[in-house]
Amino acid sequence: MKTELIGSKSGAGASCAPPLLELAGVTKSFATTVANDDISLSIAPGEIHAILGENGAGKSTLMKMIYGVLAPDSGRIRWQGEDVLMRNPAQARSLGIGMVFQHFSLFETLTVAENISLSTSQSAAKLSPRIAEIGNRFGLPVDPSAMVHSLSVGQRQRAEIIRCLLQQPKLIIMDEPTSVLPPSGIPPLFDTIRKLAEDGCAVLFISHKLEEIRALCHRATIMRAGKVVAAVDVATQTNRSLAELMIGREIPQPSRTPAKPGKRPALEIRALTHEPEDPFGTRLEGIDLVLHPGEIVGIAGVSGNGQKELAAILSGETSLSRAERDRVRINGESCGDLGPGQRRKLGLSFVPEERNGRGAVPEMTLVQNALLTAHPLGMVQKGLIARRDARAFTEHCISAMNVRCSGAAAEARSLSGGNLQKFIVGREIRLQPKILIASQPTWGVDIGAAAAIRQELIRLRDSGVAILVISDELEELFEVADRLQVLFRGRLSPSVDRADANSSLVGEYMTGGFLQQRIDSEAVAA
Amino acid sequence: MDWLAFLLSGTVLAATPLLIAALGELIAEKSGVLNLSVEGMMALGAAIGFIVVAESGSHWLAILAGGLASAGLAAIFAFVVLVTLGNQVATGIAVGILGVGLAGLIGKPYESMTVPPMARVPLPLLSDIPIIGPGLFNQPLLVYLAPLLAAALWWMFKHSKVGLVIRAVGESPESAHAVGYDVVGIRFLAVVTGGLFAGIAGAFISVASTTLWSDGMIAGRGWIVVALVVFAMWRVERVVIGAYLFGAATIAELLVQSAGIAAPSQLLTSIPYIATIIAIALLSMDGKRIRLNAPVSLGRVYNGAQ
Q: Which domain of life is it from (chain B) (predicted)?
């Protein structure tokens, strides 16, 4: 197979090599939507090719078809010049296509080597030295005998990449690989990807982050609403031109004025240490957090560092013992032992990370979902539901947030993730809370709608609401937050003011830099 | 000290079917399928086994036939929950009732009949040890095979690829599918194997330990098996310990009587069931350990690559 040799130059030479993978007119539709419409695409060996598009543009569907998880309705997929009919992932792998998933397909209760042995014919014991060898060669250090649940997200990703590499793929698909990494984890990943490309392996890099694509990729195929809108040479593009191709218009920027926080804290956590119920959860240690009316505090950090546990303690889903009730206060009132319902009565509202199951009940209509948290707004009279009020409230949420759905009677699960999120945020905002806690408020929401949600948060802040935003996306926090704190392994960093926040400082905090500072300052004090 | 040998013997005879059936249920649950029809599968295995012995006289043929019959019943269950995506709990209970009913129906002509018990195989040397020898080492062959089967399964889950794949499917069927495994096929085989074991266990009861057919002779042992797997936290070594403990509890009635304590017999026969409830309640208080050991997808409907 001479294709492997040609790829060694990568980049510039890639375009004259025969394509490794070619898609022509590929279409896939689901019940009501066309997820991929007449997609064409070609990738040469050794090429790093970006698939750029907003959430919901159809990137994932396309990748699933290339990897054999889904079958296209029509169109052709050609691999090394021959038509193939991809039936399942095993077949894709045998052809030499590997995939690194965004939500990892690793098994938590097994070791790294056991996980990898599941996709090869070798035993875990025999694989361990090869895992170490590949790890060395491509800059992917990971302990083969470690249990997956004990690994950080970055380590898991490395394990997943090694699993891919062991099968000596000719094409690796990476689904938003940087979205789970701290800023410091991104350059090593890029080095690994470049080494792979130099070895002749083609990489399909899926992302919606323009900087990354410009730093790494040779070419980009840009998707919008299920269609390919352009295939470009990345070198000829600017961030702005890529963004406009991706969204089809200019990105709106939220406007803001300086915060005028109130004096008395709306929400406080004092010296909280909490052991999680979940054995795979994160232990929170010495958490101190103060939130004032009229300010937005952002909690940054790579997910899995205690965000879930902290959010549950704030919402009341995890309630503390009576002895510890003073550790959480709402408007000065101790409430650590109160449940979510009682905290909502104190003026707290909450947008959880998972839309289906926690933010909304998938099987219930939007009206019913609205009632779940908005019933105190006069929607229940003498124990009976005031249907007209509930419906009016729901319709108001739908129109104000521009939620795309078939109406107030639509089931929550019929909405796309982003649209459901807009509905949930709208509902919680309309409860006129004193405190709003929003976990990943714009995750999976398209750029325009995300900007609208952020603008809404800022407007709410200006009306005197205390807001806590927990998010993986640093850009989002830089945009909305007045102050930032970083969670790392269950510890909270010191607060950084908006003016002092930059990605290098916060990035350092995200890998635990503040812990060292704390030790240093204690040493000075002693 | 004959009664001590008698108690030991009674314990292993009672524990063997519990152990075999629990190992089968363990395989199914490790793959993520909760099969609550164990009671029915054991009853059907017992009935078929009894009939085969009564008609042919061959105990091994009976064990085999009982196992195959229950494997067939398990295949019905597996089809409903894996292919037509039925709810596992409801389907399990329904198929269980079907099994018990079928057993009663086909066993009707044999009601109150007895068959000669399965041959005992004294182990050389070991069976000559006083008390322990006649108690533990002069038993039907299956009594010795059951712990060996447990050891084999322990090795399988710990060291073999097959065991790894079953665990993986039980933890995350979505990921297993993404890695390229046939989740439905693997679960189907696991459930049918579980049924085979339950049938063998049921047949063992009717042809080796009780040897008298009466409708409802399994008497809740299938439910004890289901509880036993939870009690064991889905670990083979604890299934073994649990099975012998429950085996001892089922003959506690005899133990109490031999100690000369007067108590109503209804109370005494309910000891194993009460013990089950207490054991489950105590263990379930430690939610953390259950979450570490339980197959994550247990009982959840998996609908393929949707």
A: Bacteria
